[in-house]
Structure to design on (206 residues):
């Protein structure tokens, strides 16, 4: 019966640093492919929406589509690059901490890669389409922060607010990753110091 129970082997594999890192690499690569297909779906939705607009609004939709394509490329390529870098990480005692720090940085990078082009293209789209364009962008990207009203000045505010908010998220994620690494370094230094003190005490006792 025990030979059909595979979970002990799975847990044993997950405890191995190289195997766990390989799983994370594959997950990022799969996510990159999924992001690519999601980008295609989003492209179709934007195109269908733009094709139904009035002639004076269509240029804004075309501009938004171009920036959206750039955003999809940035997200997919970032995921693939980070997966390769994660695979090349040297073996370490606390590998999970380094992997977690890499994922935290990646979260900020992905948000910025998507938010900045969408904010710029979306602001221009708002200039042409105004209220309808902003509502469409908010429905298509519910996780992205939007700013401003549905007018020309609101488009500028949408661009600047989106870009600076993406920068804030990126800095915050990088800060969390750095703090995680700092805590690891402090822990390792404390343990090293304790070992030195213990060795010194043993020599003193002798």
């Amino acid at each position: 019966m025990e030979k059909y129970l595979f979970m002990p082997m799975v847990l044993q594999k997950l405890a191995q640093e190289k195997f766990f890192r390989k799983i994370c690499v594959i997950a990022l690569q799969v996510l990159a492919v999924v992001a690519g297909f999601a980008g295609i779906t989003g492209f179709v939705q934007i195109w269908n929406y733009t094709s139904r607009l009035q002639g004076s609004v269509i240029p804004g939709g075309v501009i938004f589509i171009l920036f959206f394509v750039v955003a999809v490329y940035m997200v997919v390529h970032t995921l693939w690059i980070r997966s390769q870098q994660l695979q090349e990480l040297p073996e370490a005692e606390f590998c999970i901490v380094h992997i977690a720090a890499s994922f935290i940085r990646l979260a900020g990078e992905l948000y910025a890669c998507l938010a900045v082009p969408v904010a710029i293209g979306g602001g221009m789209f708002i200039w042409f389409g105004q209220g309808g364009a902003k509502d469409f962008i908010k429905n298509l990207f519910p996780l992205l922060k939007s700013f401003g009203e549905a007018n020309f000045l609101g488009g500028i505010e949408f661009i600047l607010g989106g870009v600076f908010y993406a920068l804030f998220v990126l800095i915050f994620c990088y800060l969390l990753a750095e703090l995680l690494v700092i805590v690891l370094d402090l822990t390792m230094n404390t343990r090293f110091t304790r070992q030195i003190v213990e060795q010194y005490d043993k020599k003193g006792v002798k």
Summary: Residues 52 and 82 are 38 Å apart (CA to CA). The chain has a mean pLDDT of 85. The domain at 18-205 is CATH 1.20.120 (Four Helix Bundle (Hemerythrin (Met), subunit A)).
